[in-house]
């Protein structure tokens, strides 16, 4: 497990999401990268049905096909844990306490590539039952290194070669600011969750009538 960086790839004006994805995939393949299967990262959001300490609590359960036996569970503005995926069965049985938010499940899925010391993933983002592309996420793993600052230079170089602006998440930025910060198993899920929340927020803004503003989406942090 190395340092992973997940960023949002901008859509192009008057171009479909699939067009942008195909264009990026061709750039990656032209570098000599080989396809290595598919991947999926999803997030199911649960909301407490009974206020806890006077507040409605939100829990985000993230699943990553790189860790098929695990569930990464994040309490909004609170702690997080990594559990066996039987945690999802537990949530299904306690829906009178925590129920999934309807049409709120979000997923990024696409193709994995291997390029020397890099693992690269290009994923399209979909929400609920709607199959239209709501965003594009690019994940780059530099597998030989577990230190963020030691990896950032070579990750940035690859992003520039691909023509992608290294617009990193707040979570990744916080890791770079801690000089000897090393990677943790939950780091990738944290980045996806932050970007998923950004996509959800943009969808909420687009669906509101003119003159209305959306409620802020809180970014999950560590304990």
UniProtKB/TrEMBL annotation:
Q: Which GO terms describe its biological process?
A: regulation of transcription by RNA polymerase II
The protein's predominant localisation is nucleus
| Localization per Swiss-Prot or TrEMBL | Nucleus
Q: Keyword annotations for this protein?
A: Activator, Nucleus, Transcription, Transcription regulation
Write down any Gene Ontology CC term: mediator complex
Domain of life, per lineage? Eukaryota
- GO molecular function terms noted in the UniProt entry: transcription coactivator activity
Q: Does the keyword Transcription apply?
A: yes
Subunit field text = Component of the Mediator complex.
Family in the record: Belongs to the Mediator complex subunit 20 family.
Protein role: Component of the Mediator complex, a coactivator involved in the regulated transcription of nearly all RNA polymerase II-dependent genes. Mediator functions as a bridge to convey information from gene-specific regulatory proteins to the basal RNA polymerase II transcription machinery. Mediator is recruited to promoters by direct interactions with regulatory proteins and serves as a scaffold for the assembly of a functional preinitiation complex with RNA polymerase II and the general transcription factors.
The identity of this protein, by name, is Mediator of RNA polymerase II transcription subunit 20
Q: Which gene encodes it?
A: MED20
């Amino acid at each position: 497990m190395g340092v992973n960086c997940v960023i949002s790839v901008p859509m192009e004006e008057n171009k479909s999401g699939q067009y942008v994805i195909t264009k990026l995939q061709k750039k990656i393949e032209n570098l000599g990268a080989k396809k290595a299967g598919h991947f999926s990262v999803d997030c199911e959001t649960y909301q407490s049905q009974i206020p806890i300490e006077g507040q409605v609590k939100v829990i985000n359960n993230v699943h990553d096909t790189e860790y098929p036996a695990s569930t990464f569970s994040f309490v909004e503005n609170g702690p997080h844990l990594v559990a066996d995926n039987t945690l999802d069965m537990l949530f299904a049985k306690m829906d009178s306490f925590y129920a999934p938010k309807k049409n709120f499940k979000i997923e990024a899925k696409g193709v994995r590539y291997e390029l020397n010391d890099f693992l690269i993933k290009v994923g399209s983002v979909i929400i609920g039952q709607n199959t239209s592309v709501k965003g594009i996420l690019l994940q780059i793993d530099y597998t030989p290194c577990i230190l963020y600052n030691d990896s950032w230079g070579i990750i940035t170089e690859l992003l520039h070669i691909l023509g992608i602006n290294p617009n990193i998440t707040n979570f990744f930025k916080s890791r770079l600011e801690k000089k000897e910060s090393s990677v943790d198993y939950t780091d990738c899920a944290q980045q996806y969750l932050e970007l998923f929340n950004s996509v959800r927020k943009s969808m909420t803004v687009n669906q509101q009538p003119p003159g209305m503003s959306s409620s802020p989406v809180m970014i999950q942090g560590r304990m």
